[in-house]
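Translate sequence into structure tokens.
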Amino acid sequence: MPFPHPTTTHPIHLQDGSSHRGTVFLNAILDHPRICVGDYTYMSAHQPLESAADVAFRLAPYLYDFSPEKLVIGKFCQIAHGVQFITASANHRSDGLSSFPFLVFGGGWEGRASLPAPGPDTIVGHDVWFGTGAMILPGAQIGDGAIIGAGAVVSGVVSPYTIVAGNPARPVRQRLSTDDARRIQSIAWWDWPIDHILAHEAEICGSDLDALEAVSPKHRSAQR
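Result follows.
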């Protein structure tokens, strides 16, 4: 069976030929104005994922059409069941004497004293794996190739190719050295044409960075 096109909503096919309804390519189903997702990034759940509204609510329940912040996720990310991005619009004002959101109950948002200031965007790089039940807090910046452990509560900056886990999430180990992380980010295999990616799955999933660099279209062009 050919590799699915990035516009395929349910990209996994079961042995009986039916689609696995619990996995979606996010870019194929979402139409949220404040969420931007790269090709081939998928989300999985233990229940069917059928509508754009349901998927957006599960992924980022406090990110509204009118929210000032954005959620940006790169290509080829893997998002397991129960992962939530708690974006800045979930925040209450916390710089005064009370955090009570009076505006939610009173109607009329403009100029309300309990309205918090706009918060930062949440940014995720490419090829990031989010384990089951991870929670990503407002304004988190997660680098390429990071792995977020199951149940982790993540805030702040996660460096590229770092494994983090726990509450609050802390680095467990580096997947690559800083130099090698920069090197693979320069290779940027996630930007290759999909046919070239599939032809070199072994190099992408292996551990030989020299071999991956050797099959990079940039490297081959430089040798001509």
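Note: The domain at 23-176 is CATH 2.160.10.10 (UDP N-Acetylglucosamine Acyltransferase; domain 1).
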